[in-house]
Each structure stands twice: as structure tokens, then as C-alpha cells.
Amino acid sequence: MKIFLGPAGIPTTVKDKGVIEGVLEVSRLTLNAMEIQFTYGVNMKEEVARKVGKVAMENNVLLSVHAPYYVNLNSEEEEKIKKSKERIISSLQKADLMEAKYVVFHAAYYGKSSPEECYEKVKSEIEEIMETVRMNRWKSIPAPETTGKRNQFGTLDELLKLSEETGCALCVDFAHIYARNGGKIDYREIFDKLSSFEHIHSHFSGIEFGKSGEKRHLTIESSEDNPPLKPLIKEVIKRDLSITIISESPILEQDSLLMKKVIEETIDHFSMNSS
Ligand SMILES: [Zn+2]
Hints:
Blueprint: E1 2-7, H1 18-28, E2 33-37, H2 46-58, E3 62-66, H3 78-98, E4 102-105, E5 108-109, H4 115-136, E6 141-144, E7 152-153, H5 156-166, E8 171-173, H6 174-180, H7 187-193, E9 200-204, E10 206-210, E11 213-218, H8 229-238, E12 242-247, H9 252-274
Parallel strand pairs: 1-12, 2-3, 3-4, 4-6, 8-9, 9-12
Antiparallel strand pairs: 5-7, 10-11
């Protein structure tokens, strides 16, 4: 079993001190993962990306990347699709320099398309992106995320099919699945579906939601109506999974540390019961 835990972005404790200090802080906090956020654009220089990768490697922090938020591979405007692809591809290029495997993004909105039409459109764009990845021999791959709003492309089944047919990866956002299903989640069913994956890249947090799904991310302990953490951890340990769980909670690294505590308690509990 190998579990990687860490924040979506620079820890709040070193918020304004840049990505490298962020990676070092993750390691000081005894965490071992961090997702680099290109929220509003990919503006990291190549030499910085290489340096970030080196510092992460030296400090045993596993990196991933979140591509900019403004992406829609099913836009009615060709120009917006082109721009979306450029954002994903430049994220992949920087991720490769950092030796970060997964490049996460929200792939598309259904818009006026049926889910099937949207799927075909996204698939053809992802195929092109995968071709660019192969041509450049990048080790990073696109990982579209399970989305939290019902008007967004990205159910688990859609992404599993996409991964099977194009070779891309995927990111399982447990809070989004919970919100989209109106406050229900079946971890066993999810991990059964993911059983062929060597490693699972995922996001976790609390979440506020309504009829159309996700409203905003919350801290893990903020509400009774959040996706439950303990059953998730139990399932991860029982299955001996190799998994990265990125905290997208507003208190980032503090909730990663909460996850770590629950993992340690669960392992203790299991070993006490088996001895
Ligand atoms: Zn997420």
C-alpha cells in the first residue's frame, strides 16, 4: 500500500512564498504530495518547473498538476476549444519538466449536446492531446476529473470509458461524485470500477451542494452532509491501494493532516483486530 497525501496548491502556512517553498513545507508537514495549481494560466517558466521537480524529488513529494479552470472541449466556438487544448497541452509540458504524471482538468460542459454527442467530441479532442503527448514522449498524461455539476461532462462512467478508449488517465473527485449524486457515495462500487488501475489519483474535501450539484468546497468536518472520510480510508486500506488523495478543502494541508491521522488510526485498529 502506498498513500500520497497533500494539498491542492501551496500550503496556507506559506501561502505567498511560491511553489518551491510550498513543496518544502509539504515535506516539513510530513505530507508527501502536492498538486500544482495553474488556476488562471500556465505562467511558470521552464527552469522553475525543472527546479520544482528536483526539489520535490529530493523531498519525496509526489507532484501532480491542475490545468487552468477555463477549459471546455465541447464549446460551440472552435476558438475556445483550441484555447482549451492549448491550456491542457502547456500544462502537460510543464508537468513533464516537473516529472508530475497527472494533469487534472474539468473537460467540458454538455451545453446543447446530448451526453453521447459531448462524449464523442471530448474523445476526439483527447485523442489529439494524447497524440501530442506521444510525439513529445512526455511522461505526463491528461487526467480529466469527475465533475460536481450536473451540466458538466465527467461522470465516473464517462471518464472510465474515455480512459479505456484513449489511454488517458482520470482523477476521482469523491466530493464531486457525492454532490452530483445528491449526497450519496458508494466507495466499494467506485473502487471496484477502478480495479484495473495501478494507481488512483483523487481529490477529497467537504462540499456544499444543491439540486444542480456542487456549490463550493468545504472543510472535511464542516458539515454532517459531507462525503464520509472514515469509510473511504477503510476501503483504501482494506484494498491495499496505491492512491494519491489531494485535499481541496479551504484549509488544504490541515485536512491532509486529518486524513493522515484517520489513516494511522485505521491501520492501528486493523492490526489490533488481527493480532
Ligand atoms: Zn477536484
